[in-house]
Write a structure and sequence with these properties.
alpha+beta, 7 helices, OBAP-like, Oil body-associated protein 2B
Length: 184
């Protein structure tokens, strides 16, 4: 991971096992829509084909370590939801890489991964401190209060976070194909 971006998710829960998120680069009035993240439960994740599981990342680390925050929501009020989210998996397609300076969405979508405890998933301490200061939170305190959050199964599913096992991710390649004519 050569770049890390701060994301702001606006979430709709479709049911207990599936959420969809519009992902922005800030919570300001000029926020740019970066892409979409789908979030699924362990139940759905474990039923996916192995090849599909490689595209999904776990959320346990970012929640337990205070990287996932809900600004303005007291920790006690969000605790129940965080406990549910800790055992979920996300697939985030970034269509606008604004951190590169792109003025509009350019190029192909990029599959993003979540922060993790090992490189290349580490987030810089400087970025965390800046975020904490901006929202008047303490990631250290949040990590302490969330230390007992577990996924209920003892560990993250072994098929998640594929990049951690081999240091490789996935890219989309553009290929021109003939259009299929259909009837409407």
């Amino acid at each position: 991971m050569k770049r890390a971006i701060e994301t702001h998710h606006y979430v709709t829960r479709l049911n207990e096992d599936f959420l969809q998120c519009a992902v922005f680069d800030s919570d300001g009035t000029n926020a740019r829509l970066l892409g979409v993240e789908y979030i699924i439960s362990y139940k759905i994740f474990s039923a996916l084909p192995e090849e599909e599981r490689k595209l999904w990342h776990s959320h346990l680390y970012e929640i337990k370590h205070g990287l996932w925050i809900n600004p303005g929501v007291p920790e006690a009020l969000q605790r129940s939801e965080l406990e549910k989210l800790a055992g979920t998996y996300g697939k985030f397609w970034c269509t606008w890489q604004s951190d590169r300076g792109d003025k509009i969405p350019l190029g192909l979508p990029v599959l993003m991964m979540s922060p993790q405890e090992s490189s290349p998933g580490l987030i810089s301490e400087e970025a965390i401190r800046a975020r904490d200061k901006r929202y008047d939170v303490s990631s250290t305190y949040l990590a302490q209060t969330r230390a007992d959050i577990d996924v209920g199964l003892g560990a993250v599913h072994p098929s998640a976070d594929h990049w951690k096992k081999n240091g490789k991710g996935f890219v989309i390649e553009l290929k021109e194909v003939d259009m299929v004519k259909g009837s409407m």
